[in-house]
Amino acid sequence: xxxxxxxxxxxxxxxxxxxxxxxxxxxxxxxxxxxxxxxxxxxxxxxxxxxxxxxxxxxxxxxxxxxxxxxxxxxxxxxxxxxxxxxxxxxxxxxxxxxxxxxxxxxxxxxxxxxxxxxxxxxxxxxxxxxxxxxxxxxxxxxxxxxxxxxxxxxxxxxxxxxxxxxxxxxxxxxxxxxxxxxxxxxxxxxxxxxxxxxxxxxxxxxxxxxxxxxxxxxxxxxxxxxxxxxxxxxxxxxxxxxxxxxxxxxxxxxxxxxxxxxxxxxxxxxxxxxxxxxxxxxxxxxxxxxxxxxxxxxxxxxxxxxxxxxxxxxxxxxxxxxxxxxxxxxxxxxxxxxxxxxxxxxxxxxxxxxxxxxxxxxxxxxxxxxxxxxxx
Length: 377
Fold this sequence. Notes:
Layout: E1 8-9, E2 17-23, H1 27-31, H2 35-53, E3 58-64, H3 76-86, E4 95-100, E5 103-108, E6 132-135, E7 138-141, H4 144-157, H5 178-182, H6 186-190, E8 194-196, E9 209-212, H7 219-236, E10 240-244, E11 256-257, H8 263-275, E12 279-280, E13 291-300, E14 303-313, E15 319-320, E16 328-331, E17 335-338, H9 341-349, H10 366-376
Parallel strand pairs: 2-3, 8-13, 9-10
Antiparallel strand pairs: 1-2, 3-5, 4-5, 6-7, 10-14, 11-14, 12-15, 13-14, 16-17
């Protein structure tokens, strides 16, 4: 659990009130702000809203950095971030605002009051699921609803015994077998001991194949940044091959110059990055991502030029994350805190009505709480 460093929970009220500090409001004034400061304010407000949505509702209280005697709107960038959070254009379904002199309040309703409802609606609100999948040649991030359906289907799939004659639900793809990946035209290149610089490969990117050029600067950091989304996406789909050192437009082998990284370091960095990917099992398996890394020599005019890194990834039985999901909760004892991967998954798919998680109930009227808070400030 990680406690939020810049959101404070007010202790003097019976309900949840998060103080978000000084915030510039109004479209005109927000457009004049330093872009980094504006982004930080937007993130702070969105994370506070996420925490309250997931915790039964409450109030975000803030002091206006730009004092105004006239009513102001919150600003289009803040509005848009809240819309993206709830995945709806109807802000009024979850939020109300009120200005009291230089104090500004956003009343946040409970996520469980979602007007869309239904079994397809995620049980909690998230800024990012940290789940992705392959779609043709692209890696696509799963939004909360897509992640919820993905996890629900994975959970449903493990209920079917391997000895059961019934086929699993049509929406759940069977695991891609080892032989399927080996029948892919990329397998021959993956098995190669050496390749020629400038050699053109006879296949293109697809759902199962991704090409990446090496960054000649900061090679190790580039690998660490490239692997999480690509490897987790392959594992969450049907497996595939990641070739680092191939130009995706010309399909030619470029490799990485041997002066920039050695063979052992290249493999070690790739393996370490994959080992850090968080996984969640609905089944009894405790396995991590199943993959194989090969470092292939790249020659130029008969001499060793550098290396190509090739990774073959098997489809994973359950869920592989590229990092910890970004979602927040709040209570008066813990403050505003983030969920770890296991907590997030359980709350997304396991927790239903009558379960043991408790949420504070917003009981005081919004009008009364705003006035009371303004008087004390």
